[in-house]
Design a protein that fits this description.
The protein has helices spanning about 20-30, 45-50, 60-65, 85-90, 110-115; strands at about 5-10, 15-20, 40, 65-70, 75-80, 95-100, 120, 130-135, 140. With about 140 residues, the chain is α/β, with parallel strands linked by helices. A 9-stranded mixed beta sheet has the order 7-1-2-6-3-5-4-8-9, with helices on both faces. Strand 1 and strand 2 (about 15-20) form a beta hairpin. It starts with 6 loop residues before the first strand and ends with a strand.
């Protein structure tokens, strides 16, 4: 079933792992289990199923590109608009997304390709990570 697979793909920002199975990603990346993953969603309508965006930030979120937002509940979301990445996300509606490397280490193509269940090409490593903002009901704080 596609929803249990780990995909290696060019995301809207960098080469990354995409999956709906957070436990499998945690094991692959050798990452502490208490850390949250960014949840990539295919539309603002899908985002509404998971969280409520504070009214003061709705316009910013609608217009943002390649930007991750940490909501007041501590979970992170990114609305994807890049066509290549949307081909996968439109099938899944949402998925956890993370860089394709062991936690705390640099990207290794051999590790990424052997760890993924499905590889979606082309892979272009020249992207940069998304901007990250933390939102609450009144303020906005840039994290990265």
């Amino acid at each position: 079933m596609l929803k249990e697979k780990v995909f290696l793909t060019q995301t809207d920002t960098t080469i990354g792992f995409v999956s709906r199975n957070a436990e499998k990603l945690t094991k692959l990346k050798q990452r502490p289990p208490h850390k949250y993953y960014i949840k990539a969603v295919n539309s603002l309508d899908t985002l509404k199923y998971f969280t409520r965006v504070p009214s003061i930030h709705k316009k910013r979120l609608r217009r943002a590109g390649k930007t991750t937002f940490i909501m007041p509940d501590g979970h992170s979301y990114r609305v994807v608009r890049e066509k290549h990445h949307l081909l996968l996300l439109d099938r899944l509606k949402w998925a956890y997304t993370t860089s394709a490397n062991v936690s705390g280490h640099a990207y290794s193509e051999s590790f990424a390709k052997t760890s993924a269940d499905i590889i979606i090409t082309p892979l272009c490593s020249d992207g940069q990570a998304s901007k990250i903002y933390q939102l609450n009901n009144t303020t906005l704080k840039r994290i990265r």
